[in-house]
Design a protein that fits this description.
The protein is built from 18 helices and 15 strands. By secondary structure, the protein is an alpha/beta fold. It folds into four domains: 120 residues, no CATH class; 67 residues, no CATH class; 70 residues, no CATH class; 199 residues, Uracil-DNA glycosylase-like domain (Uracil-DNA Glycosylase, subunit E), CATH 3.40.470.10.
């Protein structure tokens, strides 16, 4: 008689592990197990499995199998529970069974884990929040259609990334909601339940339409990395279909324009340029940032201190957070650390006016001591909450080189804590394909007592190398 193993959810790894251990201890064959999820009607001729994990004998399996099973359990293949149980029995008989890469079962399970990981990556990359107002204030809502049961597995990423904002992600299977402290699950949703527009969406569309280059269009490569099913949920891709359909005509116009006479060229330059559109988009993002409440630091600082500089800058400098003077003036790097940066850039041969300067955190965090406001280091959740604005600045400016000044800026740039000594002195590839460099923050040079001249000289050398690299890339 078949044994029924009932799981709470489609991605119930813990329930599967308990059931599988119990079944294995009873030496039940995979063909004699009926796996069911939730309240699915069961086989009338099957005997319900009683969970007796505490009484079942314990046995060890390789950690690699646990990791594989935890991922594969999220796959949409209805046979995944049985396949994993079959693999468990093989491992129990031969602890090295998973190392046989020629085994069709091993290959199938590994393929499933890769598909799950890729789906999780797509969710991280293609979720787009849109702003709306509810009874609790501002909430950011996104719609996503995963191919596998990955919503719970992905939730932690969004909690860490957007810890300071209230958000919801709606999917056809379930919904997850974060209120700043607690993660809650809700029922399945439909596309109609999510907002379909955002206050700055039209500006984004104008910008992406302006930078679209048909001469560099590779439709197959683009659709492989970003399948069309995700386009409708992303404002910047809403125009892609139309732009692709007119790519050849637009390319022909580009060629004609490049061959036109000087009078025609002069007439064309009177029209709004891509730079004008980028500047307009930057202004819209900056204006939105003025009302930022993604973390509690907005309650402390006088105002949001956004980045500053040309939108076509080849170098972007990212500091930690605005200081006392920056907070009052609303401009980055104008205090003692900023003045030291100006001096070092001058000695390194880098024109400060041609660089873009900003901070990882946009509000001043401080401790009040009498009449003085003493700098206080931002924590991880505050850095992660503010990465939204840094990413918008980087998307618009697209600097070939981004320089992290200090450990806080480096964490923001690379998405994880790093040490300056390990990263300093060489280029690192960042998420958009550009180069990321790491050096000390100018405020470090103001605090250091021993070897101050040597440390300053090393800082200038870093800036000189970065400046020369920017010229080479240009």
């Amino acid at each position: 008689m078949a044994q029924v193993a009932r799981l709470a959810d489609e991605d119930d790894f813990d329930g599967w592990r308990v059931a599988a251990r119990t079944l294995a201890s009873r030496r039940i064959l995979p063909s004699d197990v009926l796996w069911q999820v939730g309240a699915t009607p069961q086989d009338l001729f099957a005997a319900t499995l009683t969970e007796v994990a505490a009484a079942a004998p314990q046995f060890a399996v390789p950690r690699s199998f646990v990791e594989l099973a935890r991922s594969a359990i999220c796959h949409s293949d209805p046979e995944r529970f049985s396949l994993l149980y079959s693999m468990l029995l093989r491992i129990r008989a031969n602890s090295r069974a998973l190392e046989d890469r020629a085994d069709p079962l091993v290959q199938r399970l590994e393929r499933m884990t890769k598909e799950v990981r890729r789906d999780i990556h797509k969710m991280h990359a293609f979720v787009r929040f849109r702003e709306l107002e509810d009874e609790g204030g501002t909430r950011y809502v996104a719609w996503f259609e995963p191919e596998h049961h990955i919503v719970r597995a992905s939730a932690g990423f969004f909690v860490r990334r957007f810890a300071g904002m209230r958000w919801s992600i709606l999917t056809p299977e379930l919904s997850i909601h974060w209120d700043g402290e607690t993660l809650l699950e809700g029922p399945a949703a439909t596309r109609a339940d999510a907002p379909d527009r955002d206050p700055v969406e039209e500006t984004w569309k104008t910008y992406y339409a302006s930078i679209f280059n048909p001469a560099r269009l590779k439709v197959k490569a683009m659709t492989k990395e970003m399948p069309k099913k995700y386009w409708k949920n992303m404002p910047e891709t809403a125009l892609v279909g139309e732009l692709i359909s007119g790519a050849q005509a637009r390319e022909a116009r580009m060629v004609e324009t490049s061959q036109a006479k000087s009078a025609t060229a002069q007439a064309e330059t009177a029209k709004p340029s891509i730079g004008d559109n980028v500047r307009a988009a930057w202004e819209a993002v900056r204006q939105e940032a003025m009302g930022c409440t993604r973390c509690d630091l907005y309650k402390c600082g006088t105002q949001t201190v956004f980045g500053e500089g040309p939108v076509d800058a080849k170098i972007m400098f990212v500091g930690e957070q605005p200081g006392d003077q920056e907070d009052l003036a609303g401009k980055p790097f104008i205090g003692p650390a900023g003045q030291l940066l100006d001096r070092a850039l001058g000695e390194a041969g880098v024109d400060r006016s041609q660089t873009y300067v900003t901070n990882a955190v946009k509000h001043f965090k401080f401790e009040q001591r009498g009449k003085r406001r003493i700098h206080s280091k931002p924590n991880g959740s505050e850095i992660d909450a503010c990465r939204w604005w840094i990413e918008q600045e980087r998307v618009l400016i697209r600097p070939p080189i981004t320089v992290a000044l200090g450990a806080t800026a480096a964490r923001s740039l690379f998405g994880k804590p790093v040490t300056i000594s390990a990263m300093r002195g060489r280029a690192h590839t960042v998420s958009d394909g550009g180069e990321g460099w790491v050096t000390v923050h100018p405020s470090f040079l103001l605090r250091v007592r021993d070897n101050r001249e040597e440390e300053y000289a090393r800082f200038v050398d870093d800036l000189r190398v970065i400046g020369e690299r920017a010229k080479a890339l240009a």
